[in-house]
Amino acid sequence: MGHAWRLGYRRIAYVEHAYALWRSYLDSLEDQRLWGKLGASAGARSEEPLVRFLLQYLEEFAHHAAEVAVVRDLYRAQP
After folding, report:
1. How far is C-alpha 50 from the chain's CA centre?
2. Which of 44, 68, 73, 79 is the most buried (most CB within 10 A)?
3. What pLDDT was estimated at residue 45?
4. pLDDT per residue as tens digits for the range 31-54
5. Are the C-beta atoms of 34 and 51 separated by less than 8 Å?
6. How far is residue 45 from each of residues 50, 53, 61, 70, 78, measured CA to CA in Å?
7. What is the Cβ-side half-sphere exposure of residue 39, based on CA atoms within 13 angstroms?
């Protein structure tokens, strides 16, 4: 496999590592914190619950992880 494929493979490893960190953060949260407000640091979204932000984050993460996987697969399929 070529250099580009190896780069893609490392990016997949990076995504997996980032997900593991995110998941450990979620596991450390108590249920009450999930439903608490984001607070002033969230600006216009300060009144929204943390769980809403986390779900949006998960959606973005899944979207970009899928893009990385597509690029990896395209390089893998090259002759």
Report:
1. 16
2. 68
3. 92
4. 889 899 999 999 999 999 999 999
5. yes
6. 10, 9, 20, 33, 45
7. 4
HEC string for the chain:
CCHHHHHHHHHHHHHHHHHHHHHHHHHHCCHHHHCCECCHHHHHHCCCEHHHHHHHHHHHHHHHHHHHHHHHHHHHCCC
Report the b/e string of 1-32 with b at 16+ CB within 10 A.
Answer: eeeebeebeebeeebeeeeeeeeeeeeeeeee
d(CA 62, CA 45): 22
Find tokens 């969230």 and name the residue. Answer: 42
